[in-house]
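Dear Dr. K.,

Following up on our conversation at the group meeting, I've run the structure prediction for XRE family transcriptional regulator from Streptomyces genisteinicus. I'm pasting the input sequence below exactly as I used it, so you can double-check it against your construct before we proceed with anything downstream. Let me know if the numbering doesn't match what you have in your notebook.
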Amino acid sequence: MTTGLSPEDTTAAIAALGTLIRGHRLRIGLTQRELADLSTISVRAIRDLEKGKAQRPRTDTLRLIADGLRLGPRARTALEEAGRRGHRNGTGRHRPAERTAPPAPLHPLVERRAEAAVLTEELRSGAERLVTLVGLSGVGKTRLALETAAQLHDAGFTVLWHTAPGAVADCLPGDDDAGTALAADCADYLRGDGCADDLPPSPVAGPQDRGPLLVLDGVDTADLVFPRLARLQREYPGLRLLLTAAEPWNVPGERLFLVSPLDAPDPAAGIRPDAPAVRLFLGRLRRVRPDLVPDERDLADIAWVCHRLDGHPLALAAAASWLTVCDLRTLRGIVESDPAALLDPIADGRSGPGLQDRVTKALAALPAGHRQLIGGLCAAGAREFELQDVLRLTGESLPHCGRVIRDLLISGVVRSSSDGGRSAFRVLCVVRAALSAAVPAPSAAA
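The predicted structure tokens came back this morning:
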């Protein structure tokens, strides 16, 4: 009796090993180069293993890779067994055992249900096949994408989720290594990376109108190759693509969806504890100060802070974190005098770049004329501005100024203002704070 694997089984086993290695690598956030440095295995060898091209991986090679991945005993045993015989539960290179689900969010959804409902229906019905969520970093694009993906998964869609390298992963990683690896392969293919010329095989066996949904979170749209999308859609009938990005892809068929900060009404018109920004702040407050039960004065301070920070979720979370070392009245005073000091949370920053760095990067990506306009609007000192102000400051034509305001809205550095019941806009406080922090203070001699 022969105990060897057939050629087909051998191919499936090697492919399953590559999927397992890639899944572990992506789970801990390593690139192939970083894993190569940690394991002393060449980048090419790791790439070949992950692509299923290495037919006979050595035991020492697998041991070094396991060391580089810092695998525990059980995961190490599974990797070694996959190297010998393939996954017990694997049936092929990329095909997940079940319909894959999106990652689990870290925070509850606040006031985005109407937006999620619109996105879900557009993607479910096929009215839109390519949607890009844009807005300033930290505004909640990932959380909205997670909610939309969860609703589509409940409706029967396979969800493939990929967080771009370097992006802040604002969710718990999924537990489906095959689905994670397949999503990464799709992202590589759309970026045209290296050996990603071959189309990844479809994981979906079901009605064409039920998926898959491919989510690329934090993607740089400038890296995507549009002609490859059509080829991927031919391989994945019914494919929907949902992007979260700093800038639009600007390709045919793209549905641009602007994610704005939460509503934070002016407290001068009355305190609204049910306002979305206030609700988010109260939720954060309970996490850092569960002993504090806000009274009317506290609610007034909270409403003012939320309005001053324009309802920007990450700015509100950062400000709330400071309540571990100061009270609400002191926090309001800091926001009023020096909001730049509160743009980063009081924690150790392990969650990624601070808000000030993110806003500075967003400003640097704008054309020079747009940055000059933002500087002029901030220097003017007015809380809000209108189209006429842009006409006056730039001296350009009406169509040009209209396009500039649209660009600034899409970038997220300004938001619409409805406080006065007119078509007005305002530069976000976090943007003003980042600009003021970037201006060097005058020297003592000066």
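Two things stood out to me. The mean pLDDT is 83. Residues 7-27 form the longest helix (21 residues).

Best regards,
J.T.
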